Amino acid sequence: MTRLGKYLSARWLAVYAVVYMLFLYAPVVLLPLFAFNDATIISFPLTGFTTQWFTVLWETEALHAAVRNSAIVAISTAVLSTTLGACAARAAARYKFPGKRPVMGFIMLPLVLPEIIVAVSLLVLLMQLGMSLSLWTVILGHILICTPFSIAILSSAFQGLDNSLEEASFDLGETRWGTFRRVILPLVMPGVVSSLLICFTISLDEFIIAFFLTGTDVTLPVYIWSQLRFPTKLPSVMALGTILLALSVILLIMAEWFRRRSAKKQGIEASAGGFM
Amino acid sequence: MGVTLDKEARQGLTLLSPTALYALLMLAAPLAMVVTFSFWTQNYLDIDTTLTLDNYREAWSKPIYQVLMMRSLRISLMVTVVTVLLAFPIAYYLSFHVKKRKALWLFLITVPFWTSYLLRVFLWKVILGFNGVLNTALMQVGLIDEPLTFILYNSNAVVLTLAHAWAPFAILPIFVALEKIDRSLLEAAEDLGDGPVRRFFRITLPLAMPGVIASTLIVLIPTVGDFITPRLVGGTDGLMIANMIQIQFGKANNAPLGAALAISSMVIVAAISLVIYLVGKKMGGRTE
Fold it and tell me: How far does A237 lie from chain B, in Å, by closest CA?
C-alpha cells in the first residue's frame, strides 16, 4: 500500500503543481496576447495581429516623461539602497556588537509593514516639514522598502567571506580601505550587482508609495494607474505592460546569474531561493 | 555613555550607523509623527494641534468604519487561509518530490510576481469580468448558459486576486522550513510504524510550522493595507479600510482621521498576528 500510495500522492502533487502554475501565469500570459491583438477592447476572441499599440507608445509624450522619471527614481533607489544595504549586511555579518538584533530587526521592518503605512507616515512627516512632493520624496520612500531586500541578498555574500583573507591582506600591508576595495569588494561584487538589479526592479514597479509621495512628475506605475480609467487607452497599456514584463524577466535572470556566480566564487553551493 | 565598547563593537556600530540612521529618520520619525497626528484634528487646511481622542472615537464608533474594518479583517484572513493552503502542497512538492532543478521551479514561481502589480490586478478583472476570459470560455464549452456574475466586483474577486498576488511570499517560507527537516526523522517515524498521514501530522507539519506561521504573517499583514485590488476588482462591497485611509489623505482631506484609521488597523492586525504567532509556536513546539 505505501509504495502505491506514495506513487499516487506524488502523481497528484505533480498535477496540482501544474494547475497551480497555470493559475500563477494566467494573467501574465494574457498581457502579450492583448498587446498584439488588433481590437480596441480587451476581450476574447482575439481578432488579429498588430503592432500598432507599440507605435502608440512611441508617440505618447506623457509616457516618455514617466519613463524618464521612473528611470531616475529606480536608478537612484538602486544605488542608495544597495549602499545602505551593504553597510548593514557587512556590519551584521562581520562584527559583534550590542543591540544588533533589535536594530537590524527595525531596519528590516518595512518588509512586513503594509506599504500604505510607510507611504502615509512619510507623507505626514514631509507635510509637517513643509517639503514639497517630488521624485526625491518617492526615492526616499523607495530606499526604505528596498534596503531590506538588499540586506537579504548581500548578507549571504558577506557571510560567505573568509575572515582570513582580510587578515592576510592586513598582514601584507594593505590599509582598511585598500582591503575593502581590492579583496572584499571583488568577492561580493556579484551580490552587489544582484542587489542593484532587484532594487531597480522593485522601485520600477512600486505603486503605492509613489502614488502618495509623487508630485506633478509621475512615475510609470502612477501613469499606468491614470490610464486604466480610459478604456481606449487599455490596449496600449497592455503593450507597455508587455515591455515591462520582458524587461523585468531579463533583469531577474541577470540578477540570478550574478547571485549564483557570487555563491560559486565563495565555494557555496548555489542554493535556491535567493530572491527572497 | 559609561558603557565601554571594544574596538570590534565600535567598528560594527559605525558601519551600521548610516542604515540605522536612515531607518530612524525615515521610518521611526514618520511613524512617531503619524501617531501624534492621529491625536490632532484638521479643519480644511488648518491643523489643530490640541491632543484629542476624537479621531479614534470616530474611527471606532462610526458604522462605516466598523464595517470596513471588519470586512478588511475578514477578507485578509480569508486571503491568508486560501493562500497558505494553496501554497503548502506546492512547497511540499518542491521540497520532497522535485529532485533536480529546484531553483528553476522557484524562479518560475517568482516570475509572475515581478510583473507590474497594477496590471496583474487589472488582468484579473479582464479574466473575471462579465464578458471576461473565464465567462467566454465556460460559455463556449457549454458549461454555463449565461455569464457568472458572482466572480467580479465583490469580496470573492478580492480574495482570489490577492491570493494570486501573494502566492510566492507564502510558498518560499514554507519551502525553506520543509527543506530544513531532517529526512531521517521521517524514516524513523515510518520504521516505528507511522502511516503516511500520521507521519505527516506528527512530524512534517509540526516541523514545518515556523514556515507556515511566517507565510501566514507575511500575507496577512500587508493585505490589510492593500487598496488597489479592492478598488479595481472589489466593487462597492469589496472596498477595504485602506481605501478609506487613502480617501481621508486624499479627497476627504482629513489626514488626522486617516492616521487614526491606519493606526487602529495596524494595532488590530498586530494583535491578531501575535495570537497566530503564539498559537503556531505552541502547535509547532509540542513535539519537542
Answer: 9
Inter-chain residue contact A120 with B249, CB threshold 8 Å: yes
Any idea where the domains of chain B sit in the sequence? 62-285
Best of A121, A177, A224, A228 to disrupt the B interface (most B CBs within 10 Å) is A121
Residue A274 has pLDDT above 50, yes or no: no
For residue A6, give the amino acid letter.
K
Q: Which residues pair with A49 in a beta bridge?
A: A37
Q: What is the per-residue pLDDT across B209-237, written as a single tens digit (0 to 9) for each?
A: 888 998 999 899 888 888 888 888 888 77
Contact B127, A26 (CB under 8 A): yes
The three-point CA angle B151-B124-B76 to 5° equals 70
Cβ of A273 within 8 Å of Cβ of B19? The answer is no
Q: Domain B62-285: which topology?
A: MetI-like fold (1.10.3720)
Phi, psi of B48 (to 5 degrees): -95, 120
> How many beta-carbon contacts under 8 Å exist across A and B?
247
Confidence of residue A268 (pLDDT cuts 50, 70, 90): low
Query: Tens digit of pLDDT for each residue in A204-222?
Result: 989 999 999 988 889 999 9
Domain A36-265 falls under CATH 3.40.50.960: no
Residue A45: is the preceding peptide bond cis (ω within 30°)? Answer: yes
- A271 pLDDT exceeds 50? no
The residue of chain B with its CA nearest to that of A28 is: B112
Nearest CA-CA distance, residue A252 and chain B, Å: 8
User: For residue B9, how many C-alpha atoms fall within 13 Å in the half-sphere facing its CB?
Assistant: 8
Tell me whether residues A116 and B226 touch, CB distance under 8 A: yes
